[in-house]
Amino acid sequence: EDAYFALVAQVKGVKFSWIDSFMYEQSPFSCNDFMHQRCRWFAGLWLIVLSRRIPFINRAVLFFFMATWAATPLIWLAMTLCMCVASDVPFWFRGAIGLISGMSTWGYVLGFFFTFRPSDGFMRLLVLFGLQLALQPLYAAMELSGVILGIFKPPTQGFHIVQKEGSNVMKTLQASGEPSASRSNSLARLNGTELV
Which spans in 12-55 are helix H? Predict the structure, then answer.
């Protein structure tokens, strides 16, 4: 919903600015939660790419990223076949593999440098970055699982909710009278303008 809101707001002329702040996000705790999170993101972002409510020019960059993400299963299959069967691989194929795997790696590296800073300790930064690169194949496999799940079994009713804080989250929501997390409709308003 945040990507949809941002693109609709952009179309309506809302100006955005960078807020110089820092916040840690709590990531999913299990591979299953990670896979379902990526499935939900994959399916939701494709809905935005295919939406006719937003001009294509505003969706073009997202379309490019989503096309490379959607091609991940084909690239994994092709790379596996190339490792098992000796063959001459055409230049265009090597370029496609490089582009798609590079986009995935770029996203993780960018996220890393937005999360960790040299001021937190240079040795810590080096160790964590080394782990980030070493674990990239594991992250790619989990991404692949989420994409495959998103292609063959996209979430159509509600979504997998990752409980990150334990039972205190539900107790807090129940005590505050907030409705459940799987709302069917949401309406965003900005300066009196409906962003639907």
Answer: 31-50
pTM: predicted TM-score of the whole model, two decimal places: 0.68
**Contact present, 4 and 51 (Cβ < 8 Å):** yes
Please state, in angstroms and as integers, the Cα–Cα distance from residue 110 to each residue in 105, 166, 192, following that order. Answer: 8, 29, 35
Q: What is the pLDDT of residues 42-56, one digit of tens each?
A: 988 998 999 888 999
Q: Which of 92, 89, 50 is nearest to 67 (CA)?
A: 50
Residues in the chain: 196
pLDDT tens digits for range 143-179: 889 999 988 887 776 555 555 555 444 454 455 454 4
CB 75, CB 97: distance < 8 Å: yes
Answer for the pair 14, 190: CB distance below 8 angstroms, yes or no: yes
SS (H, E, C) 65-86: HHHHHHCHHHHHHHHHHHHHCC
Q: Tokens standing for 61?
A: 């960059």
57 vs 52: CA distance, rounded Å:
11
